[in-house]
């Protein structure tokens, strides 16, 4: 939400011992990150299924995050959002 009071209210409603909720004003970054992470997850599963190791998966995820960050920045998102720091 663009309204920090509403964000805080929703955060407080859903936060508990087993679910941590974060707020963020970067709607473009949150929407892109939520959607594009799934592409990286599918690719990671393919890499694992092909028998490549943890280093290959880590490289894929690292490069994928870099690409998502660059795309997001071009579309007006805060790159820090993709690192969970926004």
Automatic annotation (TrEMBL):
Keywords noted in UniProt: Lipid biosynthesis, Lipid metabolism, NAD, Phospholipid biosynthesis, Phospholipid metabolism
Lineage: superkingdom: Bacteria
One Pfam family per UniProt: NAD_Gly3P_dh_C
Keyword NAD among UniProt keywords: yes
BP term (GO), one: phospholipid biosynthetic process
Stretches of the chain forming a coiled coil according to its record: none
Residues of the Glycerol-3-phosphate dehydrogenase NAD-dependent C-terminal domain: 26-85
Record-stated family: Belongs to the NAD-dependent glycerol-3-phosphate dehydrogenase family.
Protein name from the UniProt record: Glycerol-3-phosphate dehydrogenase
Native source species: Mycobacterium tuberculosis
